[in-house]
Design a protein that fits this description.
Strand order of the largest sheet: 3-2-1-4-7-8
Distance between the termini: 50 Å
Oligomer: single chain
Number of helices: 14
Strand content: 5-15%
Structural class: alpha/beta
Protein backbone atom coordinates (compact mmCIF):
# COMPACT_ATOMS: atom_id res chain seq x y z
CA UNK A 1 0.00 0.00 0.00
CA UNK A 2 1.02 3.59 -0.59
CA UNK A 3 2.15 5.63 2.38
CA UNK A 4 -0.29 8.45 1.65
CA UNK A 5 -3.92 8.36 0.63
CA UNK A 6 -4.34 9.77 -2.87
CA UNK A 7 -7.16 11.66 -4.52
CA UNK A 8 -7.96 9.62 -7.62
CA UNK A 9 -10.29 10.78 -10.39
CA UNK A 10 -11.79 8.15 -12.71
CA UNK A 11 -13.37 9.72 -15.78
CA UNK A 12 -16.17 7.49 -17.07
CA UNK A 13 -18.21 5.22 -14.81
CA UNK A 14 -19.12 2.49 -17.27
CA UNK A 15 -18.11 -1.16 -17.47
CA UNK A 16 -14.42 -0.20 -17.11
CA UNK A 17 -14.47 2.90 -14.93
CA UNK A 18 -16.91 1.68 -12.28
CA UNK A 19 -14.99 -1.48 -11.26
CA UNK A 20 -11.76 0.52 -11.24
CA UNK A 21 -13.20 3.33 -9.13
CA UNK A 22 -14.67 0.92 -6.59
CA UNK A 23 -11.47 -1.12 -6.37
CA UNK A 24 -9.33 2.02 -5.86
CA UNK A 25 -11.67 3.19 -3.09
CA UNK A 26 -11.45 -0.25 -1.46
CA UNK A 27 -7.66 0.11 -1.59
CA UNK A 28 -7.99 3.13 0.70
CA UNK A 29 -7.86 6.09 -1.69
CA UNK A 30 -10.39 8.88 -2.10
CA UNK A 31 -12.09 8.52 -5.48
CA UNK A 32 -14.13 10.90 -7.60
CA UNK A 33 -16.07 9.05 -10.29
CA UNK A 34 -16.92 11.44 -13.10
CA UNK A 35 -19.54 10.74 -15.74
CA UNK A 36 -21.53 12.98 -18.07
CA UNK A 37 -24.61 10.73 -17.76
CA UNK A 38 -26.68 12.28 -14.97
CA UNK A 39 -29.03 9.29 -14.75
CA UNK A 40 -26.09 6.92 -14.30
CA UNK A 41 -24.58 9.10 -11.59
CA UNK A 42 -27.92 9.25 -9.74
CA UNK A 43 -28.36 5.51 -9.99
CA UNK A 44 -24.87 4.73 -8.71
CA UNK A 45 -25.13 7.33 -5.95
CA UNK A 46 -28.24 5.52 -4.70
CA UNK A 47 -26.19 2.31 -4.45
CA UNK A 48 -27.76 0.60 -7.47
CA UNK A 49 -25.07 -1.03 -9.61
CA UNK A 50 -25.61 -1.94 -13.27
CA UNK A 51 -22.44 -4.04 -13.49
CA UNK A 52 -22.04 -7.74 -12.66
CA UNK A 53 -18.45 -6.94 -11.62
CA UNK A 54 -19.59 -4.57 -8.87
CA UNK A 55 -22.42 -5.79 -6.66
CA UNK A 56 -24.71 -3.21 -5.11
CA UNK A 57 -23.37 -4.27 -1.69
CA UNK A 58 -19.80 -3.46 -2.78
CA UNK A 59 -20.95 -0.17 -4.21
CA UNK A 60 -22.78 0.76 -1.02
CA UNK A 61 -19.72 -0.20 0.98
CA UNK A 62 -17.45 2.34 -0.71
CA UNK A 63 -20.20 4.96 -0.80
CA UNK A 64 -20.78 4.61 2.92
CA UNK A 65 -17.04 4.73 3.58
CA UNK A 66 -16.98 8.30 2.26
CA UNK A 67 -14.13 7.42 -0.11
CA UNK A 68 -16.23 7.35 -3.30
CA UNK A 69 -17.95 10.45 -4.68
CA UNK A 70 -19.90 10.42 -7.94
CA UNK A 71 -20.19 13.62 -9.93
CA UNK A 72 -20.94 15.13 -13.31
CA UNK A 73 -18.82 18.21 -12.53
CA UNK A 74 -15.14 18.36 -13.47
CA UNK A 75 -14.65 20.96 -10.75
CA UNK A 76 -14.65 18.01 -8.35
CA UNK A 77 -11.43 16.82 -10.02
CA UNK A 78 -9.47 19.74 -8.56
CA UNK A 79 -6.18 18.85 -6.84
CA UNK A 80 -6.16 15.24 -7.97
CA UNK A 81 -3.09 13.06 -7.52
CA UNK A 82 -4.05 10.52 -10.16
CA UNK A 83 -6.57 10.76 -13.00
CA UNK A 84 -7.57 7.71 -15.05
CA UNK A 85 -9.52 8.24 -18.28
CA UNK A 86 -11.85 5.33 -19.11
CA UNK A 87 -14.23 6.89 -21.63
CA UNK A 88 -15.68 5.14 -24.73
CA UNK A 89 -13.79 5.00 -28.03
CA UNK A 90 -16.41 4.06 -30.63
CA UNK A 91 -16.15 3.93 -34.40
CA UNK A 92 -17.70 6.69 -36.50
CA UNK A 93 -18.14 5.99 -40.20
CA UNK A 94 -15.56 3.21 -39.86
CA UNK A 95 -12.90 5.46 -38.30
CA UNK A 96 -11.83 5.80 -34.65
CA UNK A 97 -13.82 8.42 -32.75
CA UNK A 98 -11.58 9.89 -30.05
CA UNK A 99 -13.93 12.76 -29.24
CA UNK A 100 -14.67 11.44 -25.74
CA UNK A 101 -10.96 11.00 -25.02
CA UNK A 102 -10.17 14.51 -26.28
CA UNK A 103 -13.03 16.05 -24.30
CA UNK A 104 -11.90 14.28 -21.13
CA UNK A 105 -8.29 15.36 -21.67
CA UNK A 106 -9.33 19.00 -22.15
CA UNK A 107 -11.53 18.87 -19.05
CA UNK A 108 -8.96 17.37 -16.68
CA UNK A 109 -6.00 19.35 -18.06
CA UNK A 110 -6.99 22.51 -16.22
CA UNK A 111 -6.83 20.59 -12.93
CA UNK A 112 -3.37 19.07 -13.45
CA UNK A 113 -0.85 20.21 -10.86
CA UNK A 114 2.83 19.59 -10.35
CA UNK A 115 3.49 15.90 -9.61
CA UNK A 116 0.08 14.60 -10.71
CA UNK A 117 -0.33 11.46 -12.83
CA UNK A 118 -2.68 11.00 -15.78
CA UNK A 119 -3.38 7.54 -17.22
CA UNK A 120 -5.39 6.64 -20.29
CA UNK A 121 -7.18 3.26 -20.17
CA UNK A 122 -9.55 3.66 -23.12
CA UNK A 123 -8.79 1.23 -25.95
CA UNK A 124 -7.26 3.06 -28.89
CA UNK A 125 -4.66 2.87 -31.63
CA UNK A 126 -0.90 3.12 -30.92
CA UNK A 127 0.49 6.64 -30.37
CA UNK A 128 -2.79 8.08 -29.03
CA UNK A 129 -1.35 8.78 -25.58
CA UNK A 130 1.75 10.46 -26.97
CA UNK A 131 0.33 12.26 -30.01
CA UNK A 132 -3.26 13.07 -29.01
CA UNK A 133 -3.62 13.15 -25.23
CA UNK A 134 -0.21 14.56 -24.33
CA UNK A 135 -0.42 17.73 -26.50
CA UNK A 136 -3.87 18.55 -25.08
CA UNK A 137 -2.73 18.13 -21.48
CA UNK A 138 0.42 20.19 -22.03
CA UNK A 139 -1.21 23.03 -23.96
CA UNK A 140 -4.04 23.53 -21.48
CA UNK A 141 -2.05 23.02 -18.27
CA UNK A 142 1.14 24.75 -19.35
CA UNK A 143 3.07 21.84 -17.79
CA UNK A 144 5.37 19.29 -19.42
CA UNK A 145 4.54 15.60 -19.43
CA UNK A 146 7.27 13.43 -17.93
CA UNK A 147 8.75 16.39 -16.08
CA UNK A 148 6.05 18.44 -14.35
CA UNK A 149 3.39 15.72 -14.39
CA UNK A 150 3.42 12.04 -15.30
CA UNK A 151 1.58 10.40 -18.17
CA UNK A 152 1.01 6.78 -19.13
CA UNK A 153 -1.26 4.20 -20.68
CA UNK A 154 -2.66 1.00 -19.17
CA UNK A 155 -5.13 -1.04 -21.24
CA UNK A 156 -8.24 -2.24 -19.49
CA UNK A 157 -8.78 -6.00 -19.29
CA UNK A 158 -12.26 -6.11 -17.81
CA UNK A 159 -14.14 -9.27 -18.78
CA UNK A 160 -17.75 -8.57 -17.73
CA UNK A 161 -19.25 -11.31 -15.61
CA UNK A 162 -16.07 -13.38 -15.34
CA UNK A 163 -16.06 -14.74 -11.76
CA UNK A 164 -12.47 -16.03 -11.95
CA UNK A 165 -10.52 -13.20 -13.57
CA UNK A 166 -11.42 -9.89 -11.97
CA UNK A 167 -9.74 -6.51 -12.05
CA UNK A 168 -7.60 -7.20 -9.00
CA UNK A 169 -6.17 -10.59 -10.06
CA UNK A 170 -5.77 -9.95 -13.80
CA UNK A 171 -2.20 -8.85 -14.62
CA UNK A 172 -2.16 -5.15 -15.53
CA UNK A 173 0.01 -3.89 -18.39
CA UNK A 174 1.43 -0.47 -17.52
CA UNK A 175 3.50 2.11 -19.39
CA UNK A 176 4.76 5.67 -19.13
CA UNK A 177 5.98 8.49 -21.37
CA UNK A 178 9.38 8.10 -19.72
CA UNK A 179 10.94 6.13 -16.88
CA UNK A 180 9.70 8.42 -14.12
CA UNK A 181 6.16 8.36 -15.55
CA UNK A 182 6.24 4.57 -15.71
CA UNK A 183 7.34 4.44 -12.10
CA UNK A 184 4.38 6.56 -10.97
CA UNK A 185 1.86 4.63 -13.08
CA UNK A 186 3.17 1.33 -11.79
CA UNK A 187 3.10 2.50 -8.17
CA UNK A 188 -0.54 3.51 -8.53
CA UNK A 189 -1.68 0.16 -9.94
CA UNK A 190 0.42 -1.77 -7.44
CA UNK A 191 -2.14 -0.60 -4.85
CA UNK A 192 -5.02 -1.86 -6.96
CA UNK A 193 -4.00 -5.15 -8.61
CA UNK A 194 -1.93 -8.17 -7.65
CA UNK A 195 0.54 -7.91 -10.52
CA UNK A 196 1.67 -5.20 -12.91
CA UNK A 197 3.46 -5.84 -16.21
CA UNK A 198 5.58 -2.83 -17.26
CA UNK A 199 6.31 -2.30 -20.95
CA UNK A 200 8.64 0.12 -22.71
CA UNK A 201 6.19 2.71 -24.05
CA UNK A 202 2.53 3.73 -24.24
CA UNK A 203 2.36 2.72 -27.89
CA UNK A 204 3.52 -0.77 -26.92
CA UNK A 205 0.78 -0.99 -24.30
CA UNK A 206 -1.81 0.34 -26.74
CA UNK A 207 -0.88 -2.27 -29.33
CA UNK A 208 -0.87 -5.00 -26.68
CA UNK A 209 -4.57 -4.42 -26.08
CA UNK A 210 -5.35 -4.46 -29.79
CA UNK A 211 -3.38 -7.67 -30.28
CA UNK A 212 -5.30 -9.40 -27.49
CA UNK A 213 -8.66 -8.52 -29.00
CA UNK A 214 -7.64 -9.11 -32.61
CA UNK A 215 -6.40 -12.58 -31.64
CA UNK A 216 -9.83 -13.45 -30.24
CA UNK A 217 -11.66 -11.78 -33.12
CA UNK A 218 -9.76 -13.71 -35.80
CA UNK A 219 -10.06 -17.08 -34.06
CA UNK A 220 -13.78 -16.66 -33.42
CA UNK A 221 -14.18 -15.77 -37.10
CA UNK A 222 -12.37 -18.99 -38.00
CA UNK A 223 -14.77 -21.22 -36.05
CA UNK A 224 -17.78 -19.17 -37.21
CA UNK A 225 -16.83 -19.77 -40.83
CA UNK A 226 -16.27 -23.46 -40.10
CA UNK A 227 -19.74 -23.58 -38.52
CA UNK A 228 -21.24 -22.24 -41.78
CA UNK A 229 -19.48 -24.97 -43.77
CA UNK A 230 -20.08 -27.86 -41.38
CA UNK A 231 -23.87 -27.93 -41.71
CA UNK A 232 -23.96 -28.61 -45.48
CA UNK A 233 -21.08 -31.08 -45.05
CA UNK A 234 -23.07 -33.03 -42.48
CA UNK A 235 -20.51 -32.42 -39.72
CA UNK A 236 -21.20 -31.29 -36.15
CA UNK A 237 -18.90 -28.30 -35.52
CA UNK A 238 -19.29 -28.70 -31.74
CA UNK A 239 -18.08 -32.31 -31.89
CA UNK A 240 -15.13 -31.20 -34.02
CA UNK A 241 -14.13 -28.52 -31.50
CA UNK A 242 -14.50 -30.94 -28.56
CA UNK A 243 -12.26 -33.44 -30.32
CA UNK A 244 -9.64 -30.85 -31.29
CA UNK A 245 -9.58 -29.52 -27.72
CA UNK A 246 -8.25 -32.86 -26.47
CA UNK A 247 -4.89 -31.97 -28.02
CA UNK A 248 -2.76 -30.80 -25.08
CA UNK A 249 -0.65 -28.39 -27.15
CA UNK A 250 -0.96 -26.11 -30.16
CA UNK A 251 -4.74 -25.62 -29.96
CA UNK A 252 -6.95 -23.14 -28.10
CA UNK A 253 -10.69 -23.61 -27.79
CA UNK A 254 -12.83 -20.93 -29.46
CA UNK A 255 -16.57 -21.33 -29.97
CA UNK A 256 -18.89 -20.22 -32.77
CA UNK A 257 -22.00 -18.18 -32.07
CA UNK A 258 -24.43 -15.63 -33.49
CA UNK A 259 -21.65 -13.05 -33.83
CA UNK A 260 -19.43 -10.96 -31.58
CA UNK A 261 -20.45 -8.11 -29.31
CA UNK A 262 -19.31 -5.74 -26.64
CA UNK A 263 -16.68 -3.10 -27.37
CA UNK A 264 -13.60 -5.27 -27.69
CA UNK A 265 -14.22 -7.52 -30.67
CA UNK A 266 -16.53 -5.63 -33.04
CA UNK A 267 -14.64 -2.34 -32.64
CA UNK A 268 -11.10 -2.62 -31.25
CA UNK A 269 -9.49 -4.60 -34.13
CA UNK A 270 -10.80 -1.95 -36.52
CA UNK A 271 -8.70 0.63 -34.67
CA UNK A 272 -5.63 -1.38 -35.56
CA UNK A 273 -6.58 -1.90 -39.21
CA UNK A 274 -7.46 1.80 -39.53
CA UNK A 275 -4.05 2.90 -38.26
CA UNK A 276 -2.19 0.42 -40.45
CA UNK A 277 -4.08 1.79 -43.43
CA UNK A 278 -3.48 5.43 -42.48
CA UNK A 279 0.19 5.19 -41.56
CA UNK A 280 1.51 2.30 -43.64
CA UNK A 281 -0.91 2.32 -46.59
CA UNK A 282 -1.55 -1.39 -46.16
CA UNK A 283 -4.70 -3.38 -45.51
CA UNK A 284 -4.80 -5.54 -42.39
CA UNK A 285 -6.37 -8.46 -44.20
CA UNK A 286 -6.92 -10.70 -41.19
CA UNK A 287 -8.99 -8.03 -39.46
CA UNK A 288 -10.96 -7.23 -42.61
CA UNK A 289 -11.78 -10.90 -43.14
CA UNK A 290 -12.70 -11.45 -39.47
CA UNK A 291 -14.92 -8.35 -39.54
CA UNK A 292 -16.69 -9.64 -42.63
CA UNK A 293 -17.32 -13.12 -41.21
CA UNK A 294 -18.33 -12.10 -37.69
CA UNK A 295 -20.53 -9.21 -38.79
CA UNK A 296 -22.53 -11.57 -41.04
CA UNK A 297 -23.16 -14.22 -38.37
CA UNK A 298 -26.46 -12.68 -37.19
CA UNK A 299 -27.64 -12.76 -40.80
CA UNK A 300 -26.54 -16.41 -41.05
CA UNK A 301 -28.53 -17.29 -37.90
CA UNK A 302 -31.62 -15.54 -39.28
CA UNK A 303 -31.26 -17.48 -42.54
CA UNK A 304 -30.86 -20.79 -40.69
CA UNK A 305 -33.98 -20.09 -38.60
CA UNK A 306 -35.94 -19.16 -41.72
CA UNK A 307 -34.88 -22.40 -43.41
CA UNK A 308 -35.79 -24.39 -40.32
CA UNK A 309 -39.26 -22.88 -40.23
CA UNK A 310 -39.67 -23.44 -43.96
CA UNK A 311 -38.76 -27.10 -43.54
CA UNK A 312 -41.65 -27.29 -41.06
CA UNK A 313 -43.99 -25.60 -43.57
CA UNK A 314 -44.03 -22.32 -41.64
CA UNK A 315 -43.05 -18.95 -43.11
CA UNK A 316 -41.03 -16.51 -41.03
CA UNK A 317 -43.60 -13.84 -41.81
CA UNK A 318 -46.26 -14.23 -39.15
CA UNK A 319 -44.42 -16.79 -37.05
CA UNK A 320 -44.00 -16.24 -33.33
CA UNK A 321 -40.34 -16.44 -32.37
CA UNK A 322 -39.03 -16.52 -28.81
CA UNK A 323 -35.40 -15.31 -28.53
CA UNK A 324 -33.55 -16.32 -25.38
CA UNK A 325 -30.96 -13.70 -24.42
CA UNK A 326 -30.19 -10.28 -25.87
CA UNK A 327 -26.93 -9.47 -24.05
CA UNK A 328 -23.75 -9.94 -26.05
CA UNK A 329 -22.34 -12.32 -23.42
CA UNK A 330 -23.97 -14.84 -21.12
CA UNK A 331 -24.70 -13.97 -17.49
CA UNK A 332 -24.16 -10.24 -18.09
CA UNK A 333 -26.38 -7.25 -18.74
CA UNK A 334 -24.05 -5.82 -21.37
CA UNK A 335 -25.91 -5.20 -24.62
CA UNK A 336 -23.25 -3.20 -26.47
CA UNK A 337 -22.99 -4.25 -30.13
CA UNK A 338 -24.91 -7.42 -29.26
CA UNK A 339 -25.34 -9.88 -32.15
CA UNK A 340 -28.35 -11.35 -30.35
CA UNK A 341 -30.16 -8.04 -30.76
CA UNK A 342 -29.23 -8.08 -34.45
CA UNK A 343 -30.73 -11.58 -34.74
CA UNK A 344 -33.97 -10.49 -33.07
CA UNK A 345 -34.29 -7.38 -35.21
CA UNK A 346 -33.39 -9.34 -38.36
CA UNK A 347 -36.20 -11.84 -37.70
CA UNK A 348 -38.62 -9.03 -36.95
CA UNK A 349 -37.68 -7.34 -40.23
CA UNK A 350 -38.79 -10.50 -42.06
CA UNK A 351 -42.23 -10.17 -40.50
CA UNK A 352 -41.91 -12.43 -37.47
CA UNK A 353 -43.58 -11.60 -34.18
CA UNK A 354 -40.48 -11.59 -31.96
CA UNK A 355 -40.55 -11.92 -28.19
CA UNK A 356 -37.43 -12.05 -26.04
CA UNK A 357 -36.41 -13.30 -22.62
CA UNK A 358 -33.65 -11.22 -21.07
CA UNK A 359 -33.41 -11.18 -17.26
CA UNK A 360 -30.02 -9.46 -17.05
CA UNK A 361 -30.28 -6.33 -19.20
CA UNK A 362 -31.75 -3.11 -17.82
CA UNK A 363 -35.18 -2.82 -19.55
CA UNK A 364 -34.45 0.83 -20.35
CA UNK A 365 -31.53 -0.27 -22.55
CA UNK A 366 -33.48 -2.81 -24.60
CA UNK A 367 -34.75 -2.03 -28.13
CA UNK A 368 -38.20 -0.44 -28.04
CA UNK A 369 -39.60 -2.75 -30.70
CA UNK A 370 -38.68 -6.03 -28.97
CA UNK A 371 -41.12 -7.08 -26.26
CA UNK A 372 -39.59 -8.95 -23.31
CA UNK A 373 -41.49 -11.72 -21.54
CA UNK A 374 -40.88 -14.33 -18.86
CA UNK A 375 -39.63 -17.78 -19.83
CA UNK A 376 -42.65 -20.02 -19.21
CA UNK A 377 -44.00 -23.24 -20.67
CA UNK A 378 -46.90 -21.27 -22.14
CA UNK A 379 -44.56 -18.87 -23.98
CA UNK A 380 -42.45 -21.73 -25.28
CA UNK A 381 -45.44 -23.80 -26.40
CA UNK A 382 -47.00 -20.86 -28.24
CA UNK A 383 -43.80 -20.11 -30.18
CA UNK A 384 -43.04 -21.55 -33.59
CA UNK A 385 -39.34 -21.56 -32.75
CA UNK A 386 -37.20 -20.81 -29.71
CA UNK A 387 -33.87 -19.24 -30.65
CA UNK A 388 -31.09 -19.53 -28.06
CA UNK A 389 -29.01 -16.47 -28.86
CA UNK A 390 -27.32 -15.80 -25.50
CA UNK A 391 -27.01 -18.77 -23.18
CA UNK A 392 -27.56 -17.32 -19.71
CA UNK A 393 -27.11 -20.01 -17.09
CA UNK A 394 -30.39 -19.17 -15.37
CA UNK A 395 -32.53 -20.24 -18.36
CA UNK A 396 -34.39 -23.52 -17.84
CA UNK A 397 -33.04 -25.43 -20.85
CA UNK A 398 -34.69 -28.66 -19.75
CA UNK A 399 -38.08 -26.94 -19.95
CA UNK A 400 -37.17 -25.59 -23.40
CA UNK A 401 -36.23 -29.07 -24.65
CA UNK A 402 -39.35 -30.60 -23.13
CA UNK A 403 -41.82 -28.01 -24.41
CA UNK A 404 -40.62 -26.49 -27.70
CA UNK A 405 -41.56 -27.98 -31.07
CA UNK A 406 -38.46 -26.42 -32.66
CA UNK A 407 -35.33 -24.94 -31.10
CA UNK A 408 -32.51 -23.23 -32.96
CA UNK A 409 -29.54 -23.26 -30.61
CA UNK A 410 -26.66 -20.93 -31.50
CA UNK A 411 -24.88 -21.69 -28.22
CA UNK A 412 -24.79 -25.49 -27.92
CA UNK A 413 -26.93 -25.76 -24.78
CA UNK A 414 -29.66 -28.21 -25.87
CA UNK A 415 -29.64 -31.78 -27.23
CA UNK A 416 -33.27 -32.85 -27.82
CA UNK A 417 -34.45 -34.17 -31.19
CA UNK A 418 -36.31 -30.90 -31.79
CA UNK A 419 -33.06 -28.93 -31.53
CA UNK A 420 -31.07 -27.65 -34.48
CA UNK A 421 -27.63 -26.40 -33.46
CA UNK A 422 -25.49 -23.80 -35.20
Amino acid sequence: MSVAVKKVVVVGQGYVGLPLAVRVAEAGHNVVGLDVDEMRVKRLTSGDSFSEDVTSDRLLGVLNSGRYLLSTEYADAADFDVCVITVPTPLKDGAPDLSFVKDAAHAVASHIRQGATVILESTTYPCTTEQVVCPILESVSGLRAGKDFYLGYSPERIDPGNPKWRLENTPKVVSGMNDVSLRHVEQFYDDVVERTVPVSSPRTAELTKLLENTFRHVNIALVNELAMFCKPLGIDIWEVIDAAATKPFGFMRFLPGPGVGGHCLPIDPSYLSWQVKQMLRHDFRFVALANDINSHMPEHVVLRVARGLNARRKPVNGSQILVLGLAYKKNTGDIRESPSVAVALGLRKLGAHVLAVEPHVDPLRLPDDILCVELTEEQIASSDVVVIATDHDDFDYAMVERTADYVFDACNRCRAETVERL
